[in-house]
Design a protein that fits this description.
Blueprint (H helix, E strand, L loop, with lengths): L1 H22 L10 H4 L6 E2 L1 H4 L1 E8 L1 H23 L3 E7 L2 E7 L3 H11 L3 E9 L2 E8 L1 H26 L5 E5 L3 E7 L4 H9 L4 E5 L2 H4 L11 E9 L6 E9 L4 E2 L3 E8 L7 E7 L1 H13 L5 E5 L2 E4 L11 E4 L5 H13 L6 E9 L1 H54 L3 E2 L1 H30 L4 H33 L3 H35 L7
Parallel strand pairs: 1-19, 10-16
Antiparallel strand pairs: 2-8, 2-18, 3-4, 4-6, 5-6, 7-8, 9-12, 9-15, 10-11, 13-14, 14-17, 15-16
Helix pairs in contact: 1-11, 1-14, 4-5, 6-7, 6-10, 11-12, 11-14, 12-13, 12-14, 13-14
């Protein structure tokens, strides 16, 4: 018995010391030599406690598929020109490409599609004289695959942007088929963060239509052209104006070939911030080709269908470096560089839900939650001492161990504490007390049967163990289900409950029993204060 008691006491003290060490950074800031050896992670506070932003974003899958079909359209067109396939018409509608060729070109077209575009499946075929119109469409499986990949790409892109923005402990998870949940605790500029997250950031380089720009007077643009707005900022007044500009519709270069984007100041731009960009080897080759073939023409730099600048190409530009100007403020230039480095979203996102929680409300929630837990704990402690006397003190010691172990586990696992998490702590306290009440009532029954104190304590723990174990396991299963299927605060509640139930089994049974055994071994009482 003595050997077993020493082992249990050793485990209780070791777990207590480890828990206190992990709890320390929440109370004091380790300094000097201690900083090297003590853990530095604190318990992270969730959005409802720290304040911040809760965003539910939805990927525009309609626009996504439109973009995909546009890319397929251009790729198939380039492929037919490259292979020398004579086509009479090439049209697109929804997820379908319609191609009209002369009959003797049919096999060449099928070979091209089968070799380079296996994700396109053949649809209906219509023959009119010597001409054949064939339809090719994206399969349902391919469409599903495109949507799934797009959500994952959007998830990573948003995560990269937020990481560079400097938000700590963000929550960015997929929700449903095409939605993304974003939680940013402690964010100080919600509007700037939302603009940064929501920008599609599709960078394109297109030529200005110099031939028609002078003759264009409004209405529909000439075939192969488009009209976009160009932003211009007055350096003296700081006022931004937009003017329409006529561009060639075909993009000569896109932002997916970028490798870097950095903010620079000064130079030929009058001390204003601008964004210096660098292309990869393929982008550098294309940029060299585009600038070499269009010397003297204006090349528009477009981000999300807004023209930021349209400088004249003075000479061939080699080396894969370019600049984006637009009268930016330093903040605008930094945000532009972030979205360009992080990459473009595969399609626009729209905000389905936007909740901003102020830090004052979060602090108020902390204060109320902590007060409720303290008042509840004090009431329980007083009740246990009043009703169960010395045995109630033992139960309270086990309860204190429970709370220290729980906070230590939270710090060690870098878990996030939420308001429902505080509720989970209160529930864990209640479960711990309930376990001790079951044990004490069984001990009382054993004493009334005339058993000795040691026999009554052993019998009480043995008989109560099954009921305690069953109640904890069923609660643990429920908490696991909440964790798997829940989101946000529900997960916080579930995590607290899972950790709490495991620790509770240890302290309520193993811990309190060790204290009882120590008292019985050392003092050998004939009566038990219960």
């Amino acid at each position: 018995m003595l050997k077993s008691l020493k082992l249990r006491a050793f485990l209780i003290i070791i777990f207590l010391v480890i828990s206190i060490i992990y709890c320390l950074p929440n109370v004091i800031e380790p300094k000097g030599a201690w900083k090297k050896y003590l853990p530095s992670d604190k318990i992270h506070l969730g959005l409802d406690l720290k304040g911040g932003m809760h965003l539910l974003l939805e990927l525009d899958t309609v626009k996504l598929l439109e973009n995909m079909v546009d890319r397929k359209f251009n790729a198939v067109k380039d492929g037919m020109i490259r292979e020398g396939i004579r086509f009479l018409a090439l049209d697109k509608r929804e997820q379908t490409l319609s191609i009209t060729v002369v009959a003797d070109q049919k096999e060449k077209l099928y070979n091209l599609i089968g070799k380079e575009f296996p994700d396109l499946k053949a649809g209906s075929t219509k023959t009119e004289g010597e001409n054949i119109t064939m339809e090719f469409l994206l399969s349902d499986k391919e469409l599903s695959h495109i949507k799934e990949n797009a959500v994952h790409q959007a998830l990573e892109t948003i995560r990269n942007r937020i990481d560079q923005f400097g938000v700590t402990e963000p929550t960015i998870v997929k929700q449903g088929e095409n939605q993304i949940l974003v939680q940013l605790p402690g964010i100080k500029d919600p509007q700037r963060a939302m603009e940064l997250i929501g920008r599609t950031a599709q960078l394109e380089f297109k030529l200005v239509d110099e031939e028609n720009i002078g003759r264009y007077t409004g209405g529909n643009p000439p075939e192969g052209d488009e009209i976009l707005n160009m932003k211009t900022r007055n350096r003296e007044t700081g006022i931004t104006t937009t003017t329409p500009i006529l561009l060639k519709k075909q993009a000569l270069l896109t932002g997916d070939l970028l490798t870097d984007a950095r903010v620079r100041i000064g130079g030929e731009f009058g001390g204003e911030p601008y964004v210096a960009i660098e292309f990869n080897s393929e982008g550098a080759r294309l940029f060299d080709k585009v600038t070499g073939e269009n010397v003297g023409k204006r090349l528009a730099i477009i981000l999300d269908n807004t023209v930021y600048s349209a400088p004249v190409i003075k000479e061939r530009i080699s080396g894969g470096k370019a600049t984006i100007t637009g009268g930016f403020t330093m903040e605008e230039a930094k945000d532009l560089a972030i979205v360009l480095r992080a990459g473009a979203l595969p399609a626009p996102v729209k905000v389905v839900q936007n909740i901003t929680i102020g830090p004052t409300l979060g602090q108020d929630s902390i204060n109320k939650g902590v007060k409720a837990t303290i008042f509840g704990s004090v009431f329980i402690i007083a009740f246990m001492i009043f009703y169960y006397r010395l045995s109630g003190v033992i139960a309270n010691i086990a309860l204190l161990l429970n709370l220290i172990y729980l906070l230590g586990a939270f710090s060690a696992l870098k878990a996030t504490m939420t308001l429902p998490g505080i509720a989970g702590i209160a529930l864990t306290v209640g479960m711990g007390v309930d376990s001790n009440v079951l044990i004490f009532e069984r001990i009382r029954e054993e004493l009334r049967l005339g058993k000795t104190v040691r026999a009554a304590v052993d019998g009480g723990y043995t008989k109560a163990w099954v009921a305690i174990f069953d109640s904890h396991i069923t609660t643990l299963i429920t908490a696991c289900v909440l964790f798997i299927f829940g989101t946000g605060p529900i997960k916080g509640f579930a995590i607290t409950l899972i950790i709490g139930m495991i620790i509770n089994l240890f302290t309520a049974v193993f811990g309190s029993k060790a204290i009882f055994d120590w008292i019985l071994t050392k003092y050998k009482p004939r009566k038990l204060s219960i």
